[in-house]
Amino acid sequence: MNNLSLRTKTFVLLLSVVLMATLPLVAYYVTTARGLALLGSDPSIEATLSLAVEQGSTRSEKEEAALALTRYRQIDALKSGIVNQVLLVSIVYSGLVVVVALGIGYVFISRITKPLARLTEATRRIGDDANSPMLAVTTGGEIGQLERAFNAMSQNLARAREEKIQAERKATWQRVARVIAHEIKNPLTPIKLSTERMYEKFLMQSKDFPDVIKSTTSTILTEIANMQKLVEAFHTYAKFPEPSLRPADLNQVVTEACTLFSGESTPVTCTCVEGMPPMSLDAGQMREALTNLIRNGLEAVAESGEPGRVTVTTLADGSQVRVRVEDTGCGISPENMDRLFQPYFTTKAHGNGIGLALTERIVSMHGGTVTCESTVGKGTTFTIGFAAGREKAT
Amino acid sequence: MGIIIGILLAAKSIVIVTGLVAFNKAAISVPPPTLIVTERDVRLSGEVRNAFTRDLRKLAATGAEIPLYLYVEVRQPRVDKPLRTAVAGNSLTYDLIDKKYRVVGSAGSDTLWFGTLDSAVTRACAFGDIEVIPLTEVRADGQYYFSVYGVLGKARVEALQGNTIDLMQYWDYKRPGVRTEAYAGLVLLQAVTPKATP
What we know:
B: alpha+beta; three-stranded antiparallel sheet
């Protein structure tokens, strides 16, 4: 009963009221019909009248008694039709009353519950949808007030959402600026020092000037290369192409990604499930996504300072295809979990915050999801999930 | 629970009422009539089967006069209006003093008395020698068929202060009837039956 909609509950209530109002009427008619049924059915009266007909002394007495008997028998003969008509009329009339009352009630109930249903739907959409739904105010009274209040709330929510987006955008730009400034500042210091040293040796006309030129130039070029790499990473994330989907074997992509790390001191093991359904993938992009996760795992193991391993597993589970990348590294602190896939967010000294963001973007463009579970000091598990039988990225 | 029982009782009442109505009127019919062509005219004999339903028999037993008619229409194919119409009627009455059933024909035939309702009903439902069309009106190149149907008349009811009721309600206001095949006029003219020798 608790799960019934308001419309159903109100309708049941209305039905109960109508039946309670109608059934006594039917009961009254039935009682009346029973009373009618008793008319003309008394055998003693009939016997008396028959006797009167037989024993009448004159013809006129007999005819008078016969007329009375006729009337009495006719009451009996006609009563069944009358009783049936009373019953039929009462039942048909009661049925009509029920149908009409329920019809009118249904219209009124709909007028009440429809706006509430729209309100419920709009409230549900507020949670799901970025757009704040607005309701057309179709009625007055309390429901109209409720609709107007909802619209005002929806407008406020939309404003708050917009403000939040603006604030997040501002914060992202600030973070990007900070990361870029930091990443550019790091190579600038050795470049500056190398240039100053070179200039100083030149002024002093030092004998080891050629050697200094050689070493400082090398330093400057290395730092410039680092800066180029940084710019390249940002560029890659900003201008990442759409995946070119082709039928591919996910197991093979995973194996190829693992093979890239075969020379690492930390072992990378790969376990592929048999019977992997065919999928449409951009093998290159997916390999890059997996490479980022494996590299992340290796760095986490290295950071923990203890020997560990990275395990990559593929799973096909009916409706889901998954790739799991587990490491036994240092883990991720809970406060960083929410920002894990944010671009340019990093906790590493030399990281640029692109790897995981790029991975999430690649998987998302393939219609999949990336989830992360981590325990500090024990390790992290990233899981990439796709719907099985997926032919096209959404 | 009371409400449910009430609904079930109401539904049952409808079923009973409609069932009784159906039971009373199920078998009322008019079988194909018999045609007799005499030297002067075409005559027809027919009957209404099961005309006296249970309720009608009950009413007849009260002494009310029950008139029953057999209508015969002579029609021609593709003509809406009947060429001729003939009506024969019998009325059945129970005499409470003499305790006998009386059947009187509308064609001026003798009054017949019966000891039982069944025998009286059998006679009241039978209609013989109805003159439907003179042979002089039958064209040799014409086509004729006969539409026969039964009708109940009105009965005076003493219990209703002498008012009449339409007895067709006992037939649910439906006329039982039958239509013969079409006869060629020439066939009717050639099928004259010689008068029986008395």
